[in-house]
Predict the structure.
Amino acid sequence: MAITRKTAFARRGRRNYSAPSVFSFFSKPRQLSTPLVADMHSHLLPGIDDGVKTPEEAFEVIDQLQELGYRKLITTPHIMTDYFGNTAESVRAAYQAFQPRLAAHRPSLQFEFAAEYYLDDTVIALAAERKPLLTFGDKYLLFETNMISEPLQLKEFIFSVTLQGYKPVLAHPERYQYMTLEKAEDLRNRGVRLQLNLLSLIGHYGPPVQRLAEKLVGRGWVDMLGTDCHNLEHTRLLRAVVRTTAYRKALDLPLINHTL
Ligand SMILES: [Fe+2]
């Protein structure tokens, strides 16, 4: 039987033939990631830790962060007994001194404060005495540890603050020399949220930190992204971060930043 145009079309039909369409070249358009507008880790209260030194420097850094798209900054000065001498009261006082000036000149910016607690005897005692700790959002408690070895009291601290209704957030897990994927998974199983530093994604803290950061993103174990911004050099580097594939991958995670 001669194959006519009609029968050829019918045979194609049996093979589920479908004509190519211009749309097939664009099948499944990639969903655009939600940009970060809230940051929850920075050192922007002038002169109280190793972050910005003066109100003028704070303004410059904040302007740069706004240019990067941030509309809400929750700044988190160090509370670390052996350095800076900060307490919840001194952080609050520094905020109250600076915030009205900022609100007057940058009215569109939401600016709040909490703290980055260093896990030392002081914060352990505060938690044991059930003294109120500085938090942000839904009782998120940002804390960091020493860089070298896992603190003996780490799990007890997590248990203690969790019992009191806090939601512990470990700052930059990728930076600790003792951190492994197994330990990170164990911490998440204990209810700890993990906050990655954006600068880790471009190797600012070295290649091993960058590798662990990428692995944590790959596993989907990053709950928050933070700038940990201390100065203008950090904002300059953040401009490089937002152009990377690693950053876009991290943005695809269900980040708590979007709820802050
Ligand atoms: Fe920090």
The chain has nine helices and nine strands.
